[in-house]
Design a protein that fits this description.
α2 runs antiparallel to α3. The chain has 19 helices and no strands. The chain has three domains: about 110 residues, no CATH class; about 120 residues; about 180 residues, no CATH class. It is elongated, with a radius of gyration of 26 Å. With about 425 residues, it is an all-alpha fold.
Length: about 425
């Protein structure tokens, strides 16, 4: 499937790849660069990356493909390089690449293994990241050229790798950046293995998918690598504290920025401050994200309302969440479609929210709603980032629905403190 093109980004990536001397770099980085070029080509159909792939292989193989790609015996990186040959075959249609891959597959028979049965490197050592080097090529070879005879061996290796290496690595990932990197390589191995296997073998596919979901969940839960070593590297949970701090400042009559309103003032600063602290984004990038948020807020203000008295809390906290979602997605390099999708989700999932402040004060439930919306904004960014930005309901449509919903709400749910949580409130 071809994704939406970003030619400027593609050119920048190609420039960085081309700056590396493939003849002089080590086999691991050589394999990573060539595999990456193949991935970009098949995703975008940008011929420049296909040409780079083939030329890169040629540069590595002055003495012929088979000899040029052969490395030290039982070096797992050989298999990662061999996977590039299958990509070259798919790009060019030339059998010579697949023949070379088949020849290199002989290493699978002599590859060293651990006592539990999974592949290890030359020295017998094992690392979770090596799964990416070995299992993707193994599955590619079995699917294409070996009649799937060893699918059971592949899944058996994944089973013990997950039990042995994965669980040990995931427990260290929060404090150890190398462990977190290994988890990322492992997740890439799983998704690439699933991509090249016969998905009709559903039980095997489902098992790998379960491992992948668990790995992604652990990577996301890890937060920022090294957070415990550096308190400034704020874990995810601190976004609640930031939102509460700003909202409490508003409730106590302090100075705040209405982004978009007093009652929703904690959402935007919580998300942006959290990302500023945890991800080391520069001031200029934060300002650009703030500008993106401002555009989103103004679109809602112009076409509907940001007033709780007019449309309920959906126009305050809901819009704040949409603004923060868009800002976060822009910070992480989202496309315009992804940014719009993040904003849409931020507002859509607050539709119908009433404005019913207890005792007429902007405290209960307003303050907690700010904290919750800030977390929702980060989730909307993440969700959108995993998509191509295409979705059914547009942000403009959600704005229209929000406006109509607000007009349909009875006045007792619009900042009058006559209904909802505010009605007949008694202190505990």
């Amino acid at each position: 499937m071809t994704i939406e093109r970003n030619e400027k980004l593609e050119d920048s990536l190609l420039e960085k790849m081309s700056s590396v001397d493939l003849k002089k770099t080590d086999n691991w980085n050589k394999a990573m660069i060539l595999n990456s070029a193949a991935k970009v080509y098949f995703a975008t159909k940008n011929e420049k990356f296909g040409e780079f792939l083939v030329k890169g292989i040629d540069k590595c193989c002055d003495c012929g493909i088979e000899e040029g790609f052969a490395g030290n015996d039982n070096d797992l990186t050989n298999l990662l390089l061999a996977n590039v040959l299958y990509a070259a075959k798919d790009y060019t249609g030339k059998d010579e690449y697949e023949k070379a891959a088949i020849k290199m597959a002989a290493q699978l028979n002599s590859q060293k293994r651990s006592e539990k049965g999974y592949f290890t490197d030359v020295d017998g050592k094992a690392c979770l990241c090596q799964t990416y080097a070995s299992q993707v090529f193994y599955m590619n070879y079995e699917t294409r050229d070996d009649g799937k005879e060893h699918y059971n061996d592949i899944i058996a290796q994944y089973n013990v790798i997950h039990e042995d290496l994965y669980k040990n690595t995931s427990s260290k990932a929060f404090k150890d950046s190398d462990a977190l990197e290994a988890l990322c390589y492992y997740s890439a191995a799983l998704i690439d293995t699933m991509e090249v296997m016969d998905q009709a073998l559903y039980e095997i596919y489902r098992q790998l998918m379960d491992y992948y979901k668990e790995t992604v969940k652990d990577v996301l839960a890890t937060g920022i690598s090294g957070a415990e070593k550096n308190p400034a590297k704020a874990p995810y949970e601190l976004v609640f504290a930031y939102a509460l701090a700003v909202s409490e400042e508003n409730a106590s009559g302090g100075k705040i920025v209405t982004a978009p309103t007093c009652g929703s003032c904690g959402v935007m600063p919580a998300v942006l401050y959290h990302l500023y602290k945890s991800r080391d984004f520069s001031d200029i990038r934060i300002l650009r994200a703030l500008a993106t948020a401002g555009l989103v807020g103004n679109i809602v203000k112009f076409n509907a309302s940001i007033s709780g008295a007019e449309v309920g809390c959906q126009g305050e906290v809901g819009v704040a969440c949409a603004m923060a979602s868009a800002a976060a997605n822009q910070l992480f390099g989202g496309s315009p479609a992804q940014i719009e999708y993040a904003a849409e989700m931020g507002l859509e999932h607050h539709l119908g929210m009433t404005c019913d402040p207890v005792c007429g004060l902007v405290q209960i439930p307003c303050i907690e709603r700010n904290a919750y919306a800030a977390a929702r904004a980060l989730d909307a960014n993440l969700y959108s980032s995993f998509t191509d930005g295409m979705h059914r309901v547009s942000f403009d449509k959600v704005i229209q629905v929000m406006k109509q919903t607000g007009h349909d709400l009875p006045s007792l749910y619009k900042e009058t403190s006559e209904g909802g949580l505010a009605k007949d409130y008694k202190p505990m």
